[in-house]
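Postdoc handover notes: sequence design on the structure in folder B. Input tokens:
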């Protein structure tokens, strides 16, 4: 992230203790250079009626005009990549198929008709790993891009423990 950030401070708030300042500093690009200074002047914002001072409301709805703020000027560095989930996987109660919700398209899609247990996403979110237990026990990988299912590990001669929930 590059640019100029102005973070309002409460009357006695120290910049080093401000959660908002810490959040901005945490999102700066790797290796970015930044200058930070405290400005003792009202923080102004442009509105339809001209410039007005920024106000902070607390939980009791009390209003306080911002008279101090931190200004951070950031430049350079390598942008951080933020991973955002694009899909959500779900199975019906009988675990007979895999459904996929695409947050971008805002729709559900059936992507595989296979028994599924203990699903886990890969670190990149490109694949869904799961345990297939019916006729041929194995660890399977479902690649989301092309819906291809691959066997990762054969568990035919592998002794498994049983998980039983009673109540």
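Designed sequence:
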């Amino acid at each position: 992230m590059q640019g100029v950030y102005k973070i309002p401070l409460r009357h006695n708030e120290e910049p080093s203790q401000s959660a908002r300042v810490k959040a901005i500093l945490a999102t700066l690009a790797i290796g970015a250079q930044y200058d930070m200074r405290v400005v003792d002047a009202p923080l102004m914002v442009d509105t339809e009626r001209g410039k007005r001072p920024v106000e902070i409301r607390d939980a009791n709805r009390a209003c306080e005009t911002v008279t101090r703020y931190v200004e951070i000027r950031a430049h350079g560095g390598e942008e951080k990549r933020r991973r955002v989930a694009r899909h959500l996987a779900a199975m019906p109660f009988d675990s007979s198929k895999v459904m996929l919700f695409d947050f971008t398209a805002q729709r559900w899609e059936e992507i595989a008709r296979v028994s599924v247990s203990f699903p886990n996403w890969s670190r990149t979110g490109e694949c869904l790993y799961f345990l297939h237990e019916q006729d041929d026990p194995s660890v399977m990988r479902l690649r989301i891009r092309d819906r291809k299912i691959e066997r990762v590990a054969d568990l035919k001669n592998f002794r498994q423990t049983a998980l039983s929930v009673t109540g």
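Context for whoever picks this up: The longest helix spans residues 19-27. Don't rerun without checking with the PI first.
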